[in-house]
Amino acid sequence: MHDIKFIRENPEAFDAGLARRGLDAQAGAILALDAQRRGVATRMQEAQNRRNEASKLIGAAMAAKDEPRALSLKAEVAEFKLTLSSLETEERELTQRLSDVLAIIPNLPSDDVPEGADEHANVEVSRWGTPRAFDFAPKEHADLGPALGLDFETGAMISGARFTFLRGQMARLQRAIGQFMVDHQTGANGYTECNTPVLVRDEAMYGTDKLPKFAEDSFRTTDGRWLIPTSEVTLTSSVMGQILAEADLPLRMTALSLCFRSEAGAAGKDTRGFIRQHQFEKCELVSVVRPEDSAAEHERMTGAAESILQALELPYRKVLLCTGDMGFGARKTYDLEVWLPGQDTYREISSCSNCGDFQARRMNARYRPEGQKGTEFVHTLNGSGLAVGRTLVAVLENYQQEDGTVEVPKELLPYMGGIDRLVPL
Known about the structure:
- By secondary structure, the chain is an alpha+beta fold.
- It folds into two domains: 4-103, Helix Hairpins (Orthogonal Bundle), CATH 1.10.287.40; 119-422, 2-Layer Sandwich (BirA Bifunctional Protein, domain 2), CATH 3.30.930.
- Helix content is 40%, strand content 19%.
- The protein has twelve helices and 17 strands.
- It has helices at residues 4-9, 11-20, 27-63, 67-103, 141-144, 152-159, 168-187, 202-207, 232-237, 294-311, 358-363, 388-398, and strands at residues 123-128, 150-151, 165-166, 192-193, 199-200, 226-227, 243-245, 251-260, 279-289, 316-320, 332-340, 345-354, 366-368, 376-377, 379-387, 406-407, 421-422.
- It has an eight-stranded mixed beta sheet.
């Protein structure tokens, strides 16, 4: 949510930020609606003052036994009451209209975000690791996985397209990856483990900018709750409506949860395999920090996500997203793209975003700086640390052997119950 005060004071800068997102100027229309709302509020205050004055005069007229004057003033007060009721209704409607307009405008990009229309304008920041040189043609996970327990057919039979049934050693590997991620993020990187609901109310989805714009991307239950698209929703919403003490910051939280998305990517893209699923697991990272700390926290969070890939010895590259490829609520985003030898390309496995105070304003999450009476909005950040299914895909493709087996990365061995290699069933 945008700060209307900022738009009033910086309309050109606001429109310039939208232009970098490829959007038309909107400050003029927003400020016209805001002026209309403020005008009604002024008329309300004037009517309230006049009603109060008339009410006082009624007492004076009655004390002076001037009944005609008292009756006239009572009639005037009754008229003001009707006027106020009408103005209050108009003010509520204008406030809601303004809120609705602001709710669908994306966050403004940070100054250091490169401009561009789509992913082709993203900027590679760095690479880590050297892709393995195979002495055979490496397979894609969709071809390699079924013999090892990655059962696409049963998943589709039970639930439809983009659902997968994992069996035996494959299910164990998936669980091992998730457990390793949480242990690493809590132990090495200082995040607090959380276990959150996967069903949430509208307020949680709205506060984390998933509503109203992306309602069609999520599953909704018959009682009006939403299945979370990521535990970013629940972790970030844990501070909704709160005023935190400065000493409580930063808050760093992680959760391994099921996630659900009804729109699992572009139509016709990645229809094979385990890359885009309606149901998946993800180790999410969320930070709640002071405004002056959010830029450094963004680098720290991205590093925490990178540390998983480095521990698993999976080559990857770090990419700074351009203005046209960033998410709705982000002001700056790094993507981590892991090397998939079966596809001979890098594919996204994590996005780490700094949202500034965009989400905090939507959910009214603030903190009180030490020694100050007033409060300020916190800054929120979120990132994948990592997507479990995509990490499973990366392990299968990078650790595959010519005989169809897959070696288990050494960091995962303590979680595998003695299994050091996946073998065809």
